[in-house]
Design brief:
63 residues, 2 helices, 71% helix
Length: 63
């Protein structure tokens, strides 16, 4: 097997392993963020006033 094909095979294996690890990490993070109703993200009913103010400031800066 030529050096080129060995490099391609090694690169593909490393990319697949990295993608698998990142996929697993993302799934773990998503499971923790699920609210009781199954919608991802923070629960809007339990947000503090500081969080709401921060989100409004971010929205205002984007407009």
């Amino acid at each position: 097997m030529s050096k080129f094909w060995k490099t391609v095979l090694l690169t593909a294996a490393a990319t697949g392993a990295a993608a698998f690890v990142l996929y697993q990490l993302d799934l773990d993070a998503a499971r923790e963020e699920l609210a009781d109703d199954g919608v991802p993200g923070p629960d809007p009913e339990n947000m503090g006033e500081e969080d709401v103010a921060m989100l409004l400031n971010e929205l205002a800066s984007q407009l």
